[in-house]
Q: What sequence folds into this?
């Protein structure tokens, strides 16, 4: 049985930040937290909108295939937990060097810890 429309775990292009000014706005006006293999910058959005994500991977991390894997990992953890956010936010996730050897579960653990620290997770009763 397919998931209800409201909780589908998709990540369409419209939810991805693509323009430099969007990244800059979040990094300058938003808040920042660091944990393990990633840095998270976030800025609350209007309650009627949906969350957006932007991913940054520097050449310092490694070659193109390594950077691509890091981007896929970060987008995947956001995709899996996007409906657990308490409010719509613009997130910029920056991969750190330590992401190279990490598995999805390790990246997910760091991501969820950051969301809890930032009070961006819904309280499950």
A:
């Amino acid at each position: 049985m397919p998931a209800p429309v409201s909780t589908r775990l998709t990540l369409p292009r419209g939810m991805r930040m693509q323009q430099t000014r969007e990244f800059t706005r979040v990094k300058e006006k938003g808040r920042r937290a660091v944990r393990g293999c990633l840095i998270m910058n976030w800025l609350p959005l209007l309650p009627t909108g949906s969350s957006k994500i932007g991913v940054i991977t520097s050449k310092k991390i490694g070659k193109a295939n390594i950077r691509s894997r890091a981007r896929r990992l970060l987008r995947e953890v956001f995709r899996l937990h996007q409906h657990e956010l308490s409010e719509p936010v613009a997130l910029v996730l920056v991969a750190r060097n330590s992401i190279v050897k990490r598995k999805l579960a390790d990246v997910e653990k760091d991501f969820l810890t950051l969301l809890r620290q930032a009070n961006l997770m819904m309280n499950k009763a």
Remarks:
- The chain has one domain: 15-117.
- The chain has three helices and four strands.
- The radius of gyration is 14 Å.
